[in-house]
Each structure stands twice: as structure tokens, then as C-alpha cells.
Amino acid sequence: MKSSWKAIILIAMGLFxxxxxxxGKLFFYINERFLWLTxxxxxxxxxxxxSYRYRSQHDSHADDHHxxxxxxxxxxxxxxxxxxxxxxxxxLGVVIPPKPLGAAAMTNRDISIxxxxxxxxxxxxxxxxxxxxxxxxxxxxxxxxQSSDPATLAGQEVKLVGFVYRDERFADERFMVxxxxxxxxxxxxxxxxxxxxxxxxxxxxxxQWVEVSGILQPGEFDGESMPVVEAVSVTxxxxxxxxxxxxx
Amino acid sequence: MKYTETHSPSSEISRKPIIGFFRSKxxxxxxxxxxxLAAFIVIRDNAxxxxxxxxxxxxxTIFLSxxxxxxxxxxxxxxxxxxxxxxxxxxxxxxxxxxxPISAALVGGGMGLIFPVCECGVVPVTRRLYQxxxxxxxxxxxxxxxxxxxxxxxxSTYAAFGWGPILFGRFALSFLIxxxxxxxxxxxxxxEVLRSEQLSSIEHNHHHDHTHTDSKGPRFWNALSIGxxxxxxxxxxxxxxxxxxxxxxxxxxxxxxxxLGEGSVSSIVAMMILAFVLSVCSTVDSFxxxxxxxxxxxxxxxxxxxxxxxxxxxxxxxxxxxxKRRIVLYLILLPLMATLMITVYxxxxxxW
Lengths: 248, 352
Hints:
Chain A has 248 residues and is α/β, with parallel strands linked by helices.
């Protein structure tokens, strides 16, 4: 493959990463604390792409003539299949509209009380000191886990943002307000959620982002006791800037 | 950069790729490429509305997340490889290689402290070191150990688990297993281990005296562009590995795997499969392991933290760029067996 093509792919990949950083869509993929890594990679890719312009003369000769005595350039020949492969993150990223993981990804993951509580990794004390209105789904589940008695949370007012998830275990007037917890990137996403009692549940589409206001009550789901939200209001919202919750 | 009148147009282009590109017919090809992309974008909104579409979307999100998370580390490793190519010659490296095979393997296992790279960055660095004449055993020990034996991973494991058996167990086991496997390969013939391109570059390696005469600037740019070559070359395997990992995650349900948390052997097997499939970078995997610390025994967590950085879908695909296929199989199976046996023993005989 010509070095001009290599330079173009490297620069295109750098620009692709930049576009995801600038549009904020990067958080559909990775934990926000690794933002700087992506910025570093984007700048690095641009720099490396530009470096092909200043590659010294004998190097470009090596590609054509004395291949065998110039180590490091044997693997430098990329064919068109490789080119397609290496460009596929950019192509798929541009062609398929970016979307955070949603209800479709949950069908493949375990939604039981066990996974819901074990996914809440570090027991940080900051959770308990958060003002009640700011506590998210993860915070409430950590708190439930620490007390392990749903009754202690009874009567607490909650305001939660998440997407709608349902499967065959949900009665008509119930749904789960859900989020994914991401430690590193979306590959390790673990689903979390609280069951919501809401008479108009059937009117909500799967994957719809909602803001749920209500009161926690002791309840049960799938045969196990856990806090359940008695919803006072359910309003439709857009996907939040950071669709995932971070355990640390 | 000097410009001379006597060059033919084609060498002009290859010498000044970016500028030459816009004058050549390559520009036409790029326009075609953009047109094809535009056509895709027009079609996509109508085609991706059903449940198959949302599955495809999940796949793309997971694929891109693995790739985006790994790309900075692969780039860093590739640039280090480029710098090694330009600034380190064989004689310099030779002076640092221990003659005794056991100490060579042990030094290989500890080399990550000097080259802090994770499992994506380590492969291009190892390949470059092989071209500079590093012994096979030392390179394999380095490649398997470095993703764990480095300051960054030490810090993240400490942050997640604090001082304790997980932290020390992780470092001791990774070091021992990697060095032992490296030592085993001391007895292998390099011709049977490395891919033929690597071999020929070792045998025909000329001294690059001419590069020393260049001024500092071009050498640095050369190092970067060699790093770019490495990034693209290894990136193929990273892309293929990320796709495979994303496909497995989209198609294989996790609940079955996590239900294995009970048994003393099955829990370890489950965590090792998880480490292999998730392909999470070793610099952050301890935070992920923490999520399983409640439902899995410590030995299984240890197996996850030791095996995952050595072997996972994306890194084992990247091994294919350096080693022959049969050797890649060994490089998956040997760490697997060693980790499995040691952690099962710990699970049965040690109370934590």
C-alpha cells in the first residue's frame, strides 16, 4: 500500500476520534475518565499521519528496491483487504448512527437481583453523602446493598433517569428504569435498574429514556425482595450526555 | 526537505505523499470513496429500524468501544517500536541481553517496568525487539508479563484491591508464569516460532549507518512513520479481534457464564472465559474484576487478572502478526493451563 494511503487512513482515524470527542458521543463508548487517552490518540494519529510527508528518501526507495535488507519494511505492505479492515472502525462509525447500549443489549445480559447488586463495585462513602435528589440508580442500589433490607429505604423520594426495559417477567403496569454501568468501556457494561410501578407502563416504548419521580417501597421482583419505585410521574427525556453510570 | 527537478512525477508523489496526493488520480479514488459513503448514509435510516438493526447497533457500539479504548495504547506501543527501530541498534541491545537462559527469561518478565505497555502496545514492541535480535524466550516472557508487570497496572490494581493477596498474587503469578513460558521457548528454534518475514529481517539485518548521518529531524519523523506502519499493521488484528469480541458479546448470553460462580473449578473457568471474551485493557481490568468480587471466589478473580492480560481475543489475534499459527496456539494454551492449575490449587488449599 502506498504511504499516501497510510497517511490518509491515520489522519482520517485521528479526525474520526476528534469528531466523537467534540460531539460528546465518545461517552457512548468509554468511561469519561479515559477521555484524555482518546484525545492523546487523536493528536498522535494526526502527527503520525503527517510524519509520512517527512519520511526520508531512502525509506521510500526501500519499498520498491532493496526490501530484503531493510528490516521493518517487510510487514509494511498492506493489501486492500487489510486496508478495508483497518478502515472499518471509521466506516462503521460513520455509516451506523452512534447510539449508546440500550434494551437490545440487555437481553443478552443477566437481569437478576444478583447481577444488579454485584455490578455495583466499590462501596464509596460519597454515595451516602450525596443529596437525595441527585442519587442515581447506581447510588440507590449501592445503598440497598449496604443495608440489604429493602425496608430501610422505604418512603425515600427518588428521581431517576434511565431507559425503559421490559421482558416477560414484567406485569403490564411495571417496567424497569435502567442504566448500564461502565468501568472501562461499553464492552464491560453491566445493566442496572429499579422496577417501577406505573399504570401507563404499556404506553412506554422499550429503550425510551424517561425521568421517573416517585417513592421507594419494599417490593419484590422475580421472586426476590428489592425496593420498587411507586412512580408519581414519568416524563419522556432525551438520551443524557453521559448515558452510562460510572462505579468509580 | 530538498526538492529536485530531475525526479519523475511518481517519485515526487511518494516523497511528498500529502501534497502529491491531491495532484494524482488517488484524489479521484477518494472522491469515489466519499460518494460510496454518502450513498450508505442515505440508505441507513430506512434499513436499520427493526430488531436486527438494534442488534447490529449493539455490535457496532461494543466493537467501537473496544477499539477506541485500545487504540491509544496500540499507538503508544507502535511509536515506541518506531523509536526503537531508529534509535536503538543491535549491538546496544545485545549488551543488555543476559547470556544465561533462565536470567534472560526472568529479565524478560520484568522488562515491563522499563517499557510500560499494555497488551495492545506490547506486541509491536516485542516484534521490533525480535528484529533487533532479542532472544525468543526473553521476548515471549516480556510479551506475556509486561501487560501486568508495569507501574500503571500496579497503581490501578492497588486502587481497586488495596494491599492484599489479589495485588501480590497477580504480580507474582504473572511474573512466574510468563517467565516460565518464556524459558520453555528457549529450546525452540526461532525458525519454527517466528513468522518468516520477522526471520528474514533478523538474518539480513544491515547496519543502518546511513541513518546516523541524517540530522535529528528526519530521524524523528522516520520513527513516527515507522510507528504508523506498525499501527496499521497491528491495527488489522486489533480490528479483527475487537469485532470477534463484540460479536461474541452480542450473540453469547452472559448469564450462563456467571451462573458458574459457585464451583471451585467452574468459577475459575468462567472468569477466564470472561477475561478472554471481554478483551478489556489490562490497565483498567482490575476495576472490572472488582464488580465480580462479591459473587466469585478470590482465586477466580485472580485467574481473571492473571490470564486476561496475557491472552484475550484481540491480543491473541495480534500474536498472529509475529508468530506462526501453531505457536500462537501454544501461547494461548500454556498460560491457560498454568493459570488454571495454579488458581484451582489456591482455591482448594488456601483460605483467603
